[in-house]
Amino acid sequence: MGHVAFPAMPVHIFDRDTSLERLDDTTFGGFLDQRWTIGEVPNGGFAMGLMLAAVQQVSAHPDPLTTTAHFLSPTSVGPIRVQTEVAKAGRSTTTVATSLIQNERERIRMLTTMTDLASRKGPSHRFLPPAALEPPFETRRNSFMQNFPENFEFRIPVSVAGGVLGEPSGEPHMGGTIAFADGRPPDLRAIPVMADGFAPVAFNLGYQAWTPTIEMTVHFWNHPVPGPVTVWLTTEIVEGGFHDETADLWDADGTLIARSRQLALIL
């Protein structure tokens, strides 16, 4: 009797924890693991990466070009399902709507346009240089007990790390480098969790509070090379407790790989 071949278990934690079971042509089952929580809530960028795993399985195009997620209610550790709908199947792009459902309630709704980045044609101009990060560096995401930072290695310039240490700088910036602690190289699906991986800029403004994301959009520009990703975050508007946050991400070669923007609430 021959041996039964089982699919190989992904080597890296991010890949294992974003693995999905296909339930039918449009629906996938998954699990939000405790490893990715900040407080009791799984990180929103991680949830977006999990949803992108479903998008990639139903899209005729391999690479995300833009994705926007609206966070309707907090998720929690436990099983979820992802419902997909191909809204447009074109020659150069595929647009997919996804809903993350937990306990029979829609928690996140996301719209993603996929393409093949290698097939792009036309002019290219890069006007945004990588952020200059000067030592010394802080390696803690913040001083609070939480599981999420254990998945990464951080290098945050002390010049912007005041909010991380409980000493707000007053400046509307945060950033540094981020890399998976288990050596997993960055890719497009990991960009949302890296863009959402640092302590909020609001910490440097003196608001060390939970800042739930209302909406987050990511534009994907280039595939990253292996190595740490540099992320620089800036807040330009705080109004009535709501604030924006823009993140620019460069790979280890200094190529801009993505830009994200989110709207969040200071509680």
- Strand composition percent: 35-45%
- Specify the number of helices: 3
Write the CATH architecture name of the largest domain: Beta Barrel
Shape: globular
Tell me the total number of β-strands: 16
Give me the strand/helix succession: HEEEEHEEEEEEEHEEEEE
Q: What would you say this structure looks like, in words?
A:
With 267 residues, the chain is mainly β. It folds into two domains: 13-117, Acyl-CoA thioesterase, double hotdog domain (Porin); 137-265, Porin. The chain is built from three helices and 16 strands. It has helices spanning 13-17, 44-58, 191-195, and strands at 21-22, 27-32, 37-38, 41-42, 63-71, 78-89, 94-102, 105-115, 137-138, 152-157, 173-180, 213-220, 229-234, 238-239, 242-250, 256-265. Strands 1, 2, 5, 6, 7, 8, 9, 10, 11, 12, 13, 14, 15 and 16 form a 14-stranded antiparallel beta sheet that branches. Strands 3-4 form a two-stranded antiparallel ribbon.
In short:
It contains three helices and 16 strands. By secondary structure, it is mostly beta strands.
List the helices and strands and how they pair.
Blueprint: H1 13-17, E1 21-22, E2 27-32, E3 37-38, E4 41-42, H2 44-58, E5 63-71, E6 78-89, E7 94-102, E8 105-115, E9 137-138, E10 152-157, E11 173-180, H3 191-195, E12 213-220, E13 229-234, E14 238-239, E15 242-250, E16 256-265
Antiparallel strand pairs: 1-2, 2-6, 3-4, 5-8, 5-12, 6-7, 7-8, 9-10, 10-11, 11-13, 12-16, 13-15, 14-15, 15-16
